[in-house]
Design goal:
By secondary structure, the protein is mainly beta. It contains six helices and 31 strands. It comes from Rehmannia glutinosa.
Length: 448
């Protein structure tokens, strides 16, 4: 099973145990690791009896956690199937059941509740069944698992498990579904510990040190050197997608995605003129803006992409930056706007390039700004003698299901708080502005 090596876990524990969160609920956390091969992320949980650390692909969407029960579920004394005639099955997947011709075991029971887990990268689905087992997350006061509860998740079966892992973060044994659904991972944690439906995610900017997901606590969130970032969050409302939006299987469910009300882009504070109809979600679930940790870089509908690129190039010229050759021959990603690295000045907020603002609506019908600095807008490419900074936004095509998909690179070293009690997202913008990163949670911060 994929897991953190002992030295990595011990380092991570001491990194976090320097402080305690002050909350009416015990804060649970999970380290988030970046995979340099896919530029995607894994989240650590404990599963089974005895508890075993497991890395799961982190997805800000998807309905239900799922797990590779074929290769990674040989031993557990506490697992139990969810049967098709149970109230739990009726609540999650009514009318679905599975039978099994293989020996009985995890993911293989007759008359068990069926579920179709989905790969958020490839959009491939598989057959599977529901399982319940013991589950825990680390805590901030000692190494190893914290309070134990139960987790409902889907098991992939023998017939289709192989295709489910193509494109996921390397080393993942399943999926940590963090979406807006009553049986997503955060929802199950909140229900198990009677805590508010609030969780936070802070993606690491590199694979050198982990970021973190935080459960059971709305804050404070102390980052080295003693800064409570919860006091610096700006809030924007979360928009619900229509029933059946952006899912291949469960058309009766609301979309599990976190959709935002993006009203415009600005480059160096100058408004970029866009087709406004693309920014709203229509009755078929198309259009709009969502967050995704299963997309490495932000994807923009073609006309939006062209408008942003034109504005960015013009504003870069004001800084005496001229584009160099595109990097299609040198990178697997089709970056089209690049500057020679030796022509770009470095700052604590990354390469000195025009800022990009996401202008968003909030719950008071006002506009708020999520500013993207060079550390999140640009990608360093060094291949075959090419050394440049490239704009990390990609053309998502003429007719994508979502007009704007804000990808992982743009979210790194930003603290994101998902407050489902108030249907809002809190965002910090770059933590580099505060001279800290997602890897610095509580490293030297203390609270008397």
């Amino acid at each position: 099973m994929a897991s953190l090596s002992p030295p990595s876990f011990i380092t991570f524990f001491f990194f976090f145990s320097a402080f305690l969160f002050h909350s009416s609920h015990q804060t649970l956390y999970s380290p988030i690791t970046k995979d340099n091969f896919t530029n995607l992320y894994t989240l650590l949980i404990y599963l089974k009896t005895p508890p075993q650390p497991s890395k799961l692909h982190l997805d800000l969407g998807n309905y239900l956690p799922w797990y590779d029960c074929v290769r990674h579920y040989k031993k557990s004394s506490s697992y139990k199937p969810v049967y098709s005639n149970s109230s739990l099955c009726t609540d999650i997947a009514p009318g679905l059941y599975t039978s099994c011709i293989y020996p009985q075991g995890p993911g293989c029971f007759n008359d068990s509740c069926g579920f179709f887990p989905e790969n958020p990268v490839s959009r491939k689905s598989a057959t599977g069944s529901l399982l319940i087992d013991k589950f825990a997350l680390p805590i901030t006061t000692k190494p190893g698992p914290g309070p134990v509860s139960e987790l409902v998740f889907a098991c992939t079966d023998n017939t289709s498990y192989a295709k489910m892992y193509r494109g996921l973060a390397k080393g993942s044994a399943g999926l940590a579904a963090m979406g807006r659904f009553k049986y997503s991972l955060p929802a199950q944690v909140s229900r198990a510990f009677s805590s508010p439906q609030v969780f936070a995610v802070c993606l690491p900017g590199s694979s050198v040190a982990p970021g973190v997901a935080l459960f059971n606590s709305p804050g404070p969130y102390y980052f080295s050197p003693g800064i409570d970032i919860s006091k610096s969050l700006t809030y924007t409302r979360l928009i619900l997608g229509p029933t059946g939006a952006d899912t291949e299987i469960y058309h009766e469910y609301k979309s599990p995605d976190y959709n935002l009300e993006l009203t415009s882009f600005r480059v160096n504070k100058r408004v970029v003129h866009l087709n406004q109809t693309l920014l709203s979600i229509d009755e078929n679930g198309k259009g709009g803006t969502k967050l995704s940790t299963s997309t490495p870089y932000t994807l923009l509908q073609t006309s939006i992409y062209n408008a942003l690129v034109d504005a960015f190039v013009k504003e870069s010229a004001v800084l005496n930056l001229t584009t160099t050759i595109p990097v299609e021959p040198f990178s697997i990603e089709p970056f089209s706007v690049c500057f020679a690295a030796d022509k770009v000045r470095s700052t604590r907020l990354g390469p000195f390039v025009p800022t990009i603002d996401l202008v968003l609506g909030n719950n008071n019908n006002n506009k708020v700004v999520w500013r993207i600095y060079g550390s999140n807008s640009m990608v360093r490419i060094q291949n075959f003698g090419f050394d440049g900074w490239c704009l990390g936004f990609l053309d998502g095509g003429l007719n994508p299901s979502t007009s704007i998909v804000i990808g992982g690179h743009q979210l790194e070293d930003n603290l994101l708080q998902f407050d489902l009690e108030r249907q809002r997202l809190g965002f910090s913008s770059s933590l580099l502005f505060y001279s800290t990163t997602c890897a610095n949670l509580g490293f030297s911060a203390t609270k008397n």
